[in-house]
């Protein structure tokens, strides 16, 4: 006897048969195409899938005549569903997870149902990929199809229905719909009542590994089965892949590296609402456990991007295969940190802090960096992301992870796997059969006819082929870079740029949101337009600026507006030292424009200033207009001292107290002056009398200090 596993994915079907020892004795696969339409429509044509499925099953059966199949089970893509009419035929194409036609309904769900409560019931963070938003879209936009629908069936329940006449879905796949209560193990009355959806529109719920019924004779003959074949409920492909990879108990993390990178682990209870922001998805699993899956969309797809865009190997030397590209570099790499830091967020970041708006980047470049370093820095970042997930799990649940079980195309790299072991400080193992989803389906098919538990069968049948052990000395080498990676990532997470480029610089407005208090040089050499920073900012804001406007909604660090030539800077908080001053070692300070600080400022304001205006609405410390040869500084608060040291010309207005005036200035008059829109009476002092003095029309030009009476 043999046992059949079927894997229906996004782009193709794979079918295998295994013997009693878990060895693959026959295998077939066939691809099909997604159908892309307008307005985010992405579909599968049901007949294309059935054609591929039938062909693969028939060919496998032809290869196992001496060991005929006696049971089969499924691994299928999550969330995808098809409206089925009362005649058992599809009413339209299959709506895929990446089909986002239900974005308006997604917003409607958010309005009607608290996201935290949804997570507690369904175990899923609310997302337009899930089935519920698209079911509501059909209800609101294609009422004829909705009213004719007998059942909304995912591919597992549809095939089970075709073969047995019984629409049955397992708990793991039902978990992906946003309509299923993962704790009660049934369709959620509360969710379906809220959106007025009849529970009878869904299949009967059963656990993974439930024997449903025998395949009907007409299908058995059509598919080439030689014996009576019983159908066993399978499930969501990531859950079934965990079974095929041997991840069926806590303490092991699954790491599936393909186009994306999927992280999975087993818990005895689901993650609750207070950890919703971590982004993990809870799926009912074997017995009363839960398969928790996370990861990111940034897997080997980035290797392909590097190949085609950085290394320019799209058509060169016939290298169209990413695996071949990988081999060019793999043998040249060593196990030590490379200089660049690669942030692999080309499609946003994943768990444990998903952010779809986060963008990728490459930092710490210099002339010593080569293509090999950039390639290696991506591999390091992939390992760092796995480490972050493991740390979150271990810290949150006090759950010790002993092993990473790796499968998928990326795990075939010995270097990548060994590097991951070093960086995560975990043992890594690889199952002998890498196509874990279809192998898991075959194991489930066998389990339906055996007395052993599914977990026991997994332990007996899943063979580990390779092991990688960490070298803790190498692990230590990576500790500093990993810490730097996490710190940089936090800064990337905490800010974003908004705005739209105009036809000219003057038409352009940039809004920076989030905490950028450690980011320097915003608006450096800016000539026009506007920048708004909605947080504190670091040094050199508006340095060498010639035009435009910068607004900082918080505080600014030192060297604000150094050597500024024009434009306007507004700081709504405080500023540190060297506002409008010259760069260190230079004698050319601010020469034009306006700087206004609504709070206080530090020392060395307007050093070597030649023009422009600085307004400090709070207090200032010492050294104002030192070495100045022009310009105006207005301080509305108190100044401790040393105003105008070695000043040649320029004007300082002090509306508060000057605690320690310099002896190089003498009082010459009492005058009225308009300052920043208001008129005050001042004592006027001229100086610095110890400095050289220019003459204008025969009169000596002095610097002025005006002290409010």
Can you tag this structure with a few keywords?
42 strands; Nucleotidyltransferase, domain 5; Pectate Lyase C-like; 12-stranded mixed beta sheet; 7-stranded mixed beta sheet; alpha/beta; 709 residues
Notes on the protein architecture:
With 709 residues, this protein is an alpha/beta fold. It folds into 3 domains: 2-242, Nucleotidyltransferase, domain 5 (2-Layer Sandwich); 247-432 and 463-493, 2-Layer Sandwich (Nucleotidyltransferase, domain 5); 498-708, 3 Solenoid (Pectate Lyase C-like), CATH 2.160.20. The protein contains 18 helices and 42 strands. Strands 26-27-28-29-30-31-32-34-36-42-39-38 form a 12-stranded mixed β-sheet. Strand 1 and strand 2 (12-18) form a beta hairpin. The longest helix is centred in the middle third of the chain and has 27 residues, at 371-397. The chain is elongated, with a radius of gyration of 34 Å. Mean pLDDT is 92; it is low at 315-319.
The first-to-last residue Cα distance is: 104 Å
**Which CATH-level-2 architecture of the largest domain?**
2-Layer Sandwich
Tally of individual domains: 3
Model regions low in confidence, pLDDT < 50 over at least 5 residues: 315-319
Described by the principal axes of the CA atoms, the overall outline is: elongated
CATH superfamily of the largest domain: ATPase, nucleotide binding domain
Tally of helical runs: 18
Biggest sheet layout: 12 strands, mixed
| Average pLDDT level | 92
Strand order of the largest sheet: 26-27-28-29-30-31-32-34-36-42-39-38
Radius of gyration: 34 Å
What is the class of the largest domain in the CATH system? Alpha Beta
> Helicity range of the residues?
25-40%
Q: What is the number of E strands?
A: 42
From the helix content, strand content and strand pairing, which structural class follows?
alpha/beta
């Amino acid at each position: 006897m043999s046992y059949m596993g079927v894997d229906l994915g996004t782009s193709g079907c794979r079918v295998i048969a295994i013997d009693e020892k878990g060895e693959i004795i026959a295998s077939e696969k066939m691809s099909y195409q997604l159908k892309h339409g307008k307005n985010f429509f992405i579909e599968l044509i049901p007949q294309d899938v059935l054609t591929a499925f039938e062909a693969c099953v028939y060919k496998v059966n032809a290869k196992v005549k001496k060991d005929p199949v006696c049971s089969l089970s499924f691994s299928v893509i999550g969330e995808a569903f098809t409206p089925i009419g009362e005649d058992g035929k599809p009413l339209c194409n299959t709506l895929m997870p990446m089909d986002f036609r239900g974005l308006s309904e997604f917003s409607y769900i958010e309005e009607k149902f608290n996201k935290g409560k949804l997570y507690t019931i369904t175990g899923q963070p609310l997302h337009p990929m899930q089935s519920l938003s698209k079911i509501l879209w059909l209800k609101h936009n294609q009422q004829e199809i909705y009213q004719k629908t007998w059942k909304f069936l995912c591919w597992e329940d549809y095939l089970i229905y075709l073969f047995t006449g019984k629409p049955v879905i397992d708990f793991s796949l039902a978990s992906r719909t946003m309509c299923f209560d993962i704790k009660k193990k049934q369709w959620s009355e509360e969710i379906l009542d809220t959106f007025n959806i009849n529970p009878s529109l869904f299949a009967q719920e059963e656990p993974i590994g439930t024997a449903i019924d025998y395949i009907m004779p007409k299908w058995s003959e059509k598919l080439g089965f030689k014996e009576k074949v019983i159908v066993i409920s399978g499930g969501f492909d990531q859950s079934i892949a965990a079974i095929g990879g041997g991840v069926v108990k806590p303490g092991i993390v699954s790491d599936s590296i393909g186009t994306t990178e999927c992280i999975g682990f087993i818990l005895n209870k689901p993650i609750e609402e207070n950890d919703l922001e971590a982004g993990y998805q809870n799926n009912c699993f074997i017995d009363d456990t839960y398969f928790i899956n996370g990861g990111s969309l940034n897997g080997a797809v980035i290797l392909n991007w590097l190949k085609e865009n950085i290394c320019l190997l799209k058509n060169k030397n016939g290298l169209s295969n990413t695996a071949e590209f990988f081999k060019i570099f793999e043998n040249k790499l060593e196990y030590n940190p490379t200089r660049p830091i690669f942030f692999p967020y080309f499609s946003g970041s994943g768990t444990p802090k998903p952010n779809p708006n986060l963008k990728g980047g490459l930092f710490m470049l210099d002339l010593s960096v080569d293509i090999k370093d950039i390639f290696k820095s991506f591999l390091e970042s992939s390992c760092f992301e796995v480490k972050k997930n493991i740390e979150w799990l271990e810290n949150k649940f006090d759950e010790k992870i002993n092993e990473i079980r790796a499968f998928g195309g990326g795990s075939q790299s010995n270097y990548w796997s060994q590097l991951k072991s070093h960086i995560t400080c975990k043992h890594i193992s690889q199952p002998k059969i890498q196509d874990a989803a279809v192998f898991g389906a075959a194991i489930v098919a066998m389990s339906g006819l055996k007395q052993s538990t599914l977990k026991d069968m997994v332990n007996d049948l899943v063979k580990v082929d390779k092991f990688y052990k960490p070298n803790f000395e190498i692990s230590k080498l990576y500790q500093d870079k990993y810490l730097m990676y996490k710190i940089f990532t936090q800064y990337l997470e905490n800010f974003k740029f908004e705005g739209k480029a105009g036809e000219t610089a003057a038409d352009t407005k940039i809004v920076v949101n989030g905490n950028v208090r450690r980011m320097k040089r915003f608006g450096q050499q800016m000539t026009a337009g506007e920048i708004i920073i909605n947080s504190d900012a670091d040094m050199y804001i508006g340095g060498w600026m010639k035009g435009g406007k910068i607004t900082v909604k918080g505080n600014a660090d030192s060297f604000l507006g150094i050597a500024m030539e024009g434009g306007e800077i507004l700081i709504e908080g405080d500023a540190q030292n060297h506002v409008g001053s010259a760069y260190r070692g230079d004698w050319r300070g601010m020469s034009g424009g306006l700087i206004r600080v609504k709070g206080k400022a530090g020392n060395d304001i307007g050093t070597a200033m030649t023009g422009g205006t600085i307004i400090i609405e709070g207090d200032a410390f010492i050294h104002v207009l030192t070495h100045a040869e022009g310009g105006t500084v207005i301080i509305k608060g108190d100044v401790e001292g040393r105003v105008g040291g070695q000043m040649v010309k320029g004007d300082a207005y002090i509306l508060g107290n000057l605690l320690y005036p310099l002896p190089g200035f003498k009082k010459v008059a009492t005058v009225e002056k308009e300052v920043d829109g208001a008129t005050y009476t001042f004592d006027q002092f001229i100086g610095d009398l110890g400095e050289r003095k220019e003459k204008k029309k025969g009169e000596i030009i002095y610097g002025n200090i005006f002290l409010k009476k």
